[in-house]
Design goal:
Layout lengths: L1 H14 L22 H21 L9 H13 L16 E5 L6 E4 L3 E5 H5 L5 H16 L2 H16 L3 H8 L1 H12 L10 H17 L6 H15 L3 H5 L6 H23 L1
Parallel strand pairs: 1-3
Antiparallel strand pairs: 2-3
Helix pairs in contact: 3-5, 5-9, 5-10, 6-7, 6-8, 7-8, 9-12, 10-12
The structure holds zinc ion (ZN).
Length: 273
């Protein structure tokens, strides 16, 4: 049923794609994404996702399917997800999952393969509006679509494989592919704490902005979201910022791109009324 609703929504949005909206421009994916197979990263992510949910469940911290915040999150996700396929064709076949964990941590992520978690504090403590939640979700989904984890791990594995003692020798003996696989297996444990680069962050901001706007969420909320993050960060350290480094040009970059996607939002918003 959800798929049918997603499909109908996608068709409506595509049908009314406004001529005035140009969308964002983020260029091609990094060559480092090609070093490691997508399915390998996705299956590692699935294992870590399952482990995280099991731990949360054991601590009674996994919010139930009928919890109002879970319902809200899944509704926002169901509007954004069908629009993501044009950014990454694998996304259509991902087993998307959206869950919320009761926690004081201000954090949210979308692991490779569409495994989303929001911690309750990011919504409750920052008092996020639906538009702002959609901006966080769009941003996180964009990391998965643009395969930033795959890119990071490709870079790390290459560096480690080559820099470690005997790295070159081992690469010659084992073959570069096998050596990379070993390094990825080691790095796989770090998917949840993977730090993205400034370039990855800008890319996710812009792709997320467009996704959320096309789904009918006000792109101007991306700016209010970052102001809320900055304010909260003055009194406590935010988990989210430790994996998504903030930078002073972020808000300026978002403001510059909002006019490019505003028409998407206006159109979708009008359909929904
Ligand atoms: Zn990010």
């Amino acid at each position: 049923m959800l798929r049918v609703i997603q499909f109908i929504f996608l068709m409506v949005v595509v049908a009314v794609n406004p001529l005035g909206a140009q969308g964002v421009d983020v260029g091609n994916k990094s060559v480092f994404t090609g070093l490691i197979s997508a399915s390998q990263i996705e299956s590692q992510a699935l294992n870590q996702y399952k482990e995280l949910l099991q731990k949360a469940k054991a601590q009674n911290a996994l919010l139930a399917d009928n919890h109002p915040l879970v319902i809200k999150l899944r509704k926002i996700a169901s509007r954004i997800i069908p629009l993501s396929y044009s950014w990454n064709e694998r996304a259509k076949n991902w087993d998307w999952q959206i869950n919320m964990i009761q926690s004081k941590q201000i954090n949210a992520f979308c692991m490779p393969g569409g495994k989303i978690v929001f911690y309750s504090a990011i919504i409750e403590q920052l008092k996020l509006t639906d538009d702002e939640i959609a901006m966080v979700m769009g941003h996180e989904i964009a990391h998965a679509l643009r395969e930033h984890a795959r890119e990071r791990m490709g870079k790390t594995a290459t560096t480690q494989a080559m820099a470690s003692v005997g790295g070159w020798v081992a690469s010659l003996v084992l073959g570069v592919d096998q050596r990379l696989t070993q390094e990825v297996a080691r790095a796989g444990g770090q998917l949840l704490t993977l730090k993205f680069s400034r370039g990855d962050e800008t890319e996710s901001d812009l792709v997320g902005l467009e996704l959320a706007a096309k789904a009918g969420y006000d792109p101007r909320a991306s700016v209010s979201l970052w102001h809320k993050m900055d304010r909260a960060h003055q009194s406590k350290s935010l988990e989210w910022l430790s994996t998504h480094p903030s930078h002073d040009t972020r808000i300026k970059e978002l403001e510059k791109n909002i006019p490019k996607v505003l028409a998407f939002y206006e159109n979708t918003k009008n359909i929904q009324k």
